[in-house]
Amino acid sequence: MKLSLLRGLLFLSLLTACSSPRSSTKSVQDTTTNVVVAQPKLDSTLVPQSLMDLPQTQYGGFVLKPGFYEAEFKTYCLQPGTPDPHSGDAYVQGPISGYRKDIVESVLINSRDQQDLEQRNIQLLLWSIVSGSNFNRLSYSVQADAARLLTPKQIFQLKGGVVGVLKEASYTTGLLNSNSAMKQLFETGINSYEAYERIAVSHEQSQIVKHGVKYNQWYPQKENYYVRFIPESYKKVKIQVYVPDGLLDADGKLNGEYLVYDPTGQQGIPTYTNAQRLGIGAPAIIGVVRQVIQINKAIPPPKKTVPKNTNPKVPT
């Protein structure tokens, strides 16, 4: 009985394989999930268009059309004590995780509408958040910028309004030590960005922890388009998007909805090395929005709307 069942299953699998249509993609093994990931076949001479030239939603997401696109985004170290990423480190996109993830997500999303804020101040704020440091020890300028990125309730939490133990802040003892050192540095009130950077960002070569993943590997999204990350450093990443021909209907929609891509508020996660986890902020270069398309789904967390502070030394 068992032998007959095995023969039947084998025959069925062979029949299915033989009857499958030819695919326009090639496949590679992704050792992060132990599954085969289909890869699109792009013409090597194809030049990417700017993602910034696409229409955007009222929330800042990009309304995709068939084609090959790219844009650079500001990124932030979310895992103090790990190596600075390089172009050889493969990344996949995922939601923010870890300690105070909701506050981290708010900082990243709201940074898109506060383009005059210094990236360094946003990074110092995020280091303070993920390491569980005392918000009151931040410089006045960082606290002022925080007030433009976060709600009063979130600021209250960071000031110790909600007592808690540092959880999910890191994954190894080394990272815990880095967070501890970061907290001690914030307590001293030192304002040198480089002092914090020396603790948070290792300039040693990242170590391979899993084999078989290519740095330029594409990752299919659930809507059947593709995304890949090419980091420059922990401060900036190039994101490429490929939308195959025939994916959208004549109205430029998929199943009656616009196809929207919005990496801001997400994180880049290294797939095979111990490099930095990167929080994705605003595009590095803000262009003129040529068209805004109103959508009614995928509404992000409420944005913080605060007037610009004309005196950076006084918190709003």
Descriptive notes:
The protein has one domain (23-293). The radius of gyration is 22 Å and the shape is globular. Residues 5-25, 27-36, 162-174 and 307-316 have low confidence and may be disordered. The protein contains 7 helices and 18 strands. The protein starts with a helix and ends in a 23-residue tail after the last strand. The chain has helices at 2-19, 101-110, 119-130, 140-149, 152-161, 173-188, 193-200, and strands at residues 25-30, 35-40, 49-50, 56-57, 62-63, 67-77, 82-83, 91-95, 201-202, 219-220, 226-233, 236-243, 253-254, 257-258, 260-261, 266-270, 278-283, 292-293. The chain is an alpha+beta fold and 316 residues long. The longest helix has 18 residues, at 2-19. Strands 3, 6, 8, 10, 11, 12, 16 and 17 form an 8-stranded mixed beta sheet that branches.
Radius of gyration: 22 Å
Mean pLDDT: 80
Q: Sum up the overall morphology in one term.
A: globular
| Biggest sheet descriptor | 8 strands, mixed
Secondary-structure-based class equals alpha+beta
CA-to-CA gap between the ends? 76 Å
Model regions low in confidence, pLDDT < 50 over at least 5 residues: 5-25, 27-36, 162-174, 307-316
The share of residues in helices is 25-40%
**So how many helices?**
7
β-strand number: 18
Tell me what portion of residues adopts beta-strand conformation.
Answer: 15-25%
Q: What does this entry show, briefly?
A:
This protein is of the alpha+beta class. It has helices at residues 2-19, 101-110, 119-130, 140-149, 152-161, 173-188, 193-200, and strands spanning 25-30, 35-40, 49-50, 56-57, 62-63, 67-77, 82-83, 91-95, 201-202, 219-220, 226-233, 236-243, 253-254, 257-258, 260-261, 266-270, 278-283, 292-293.
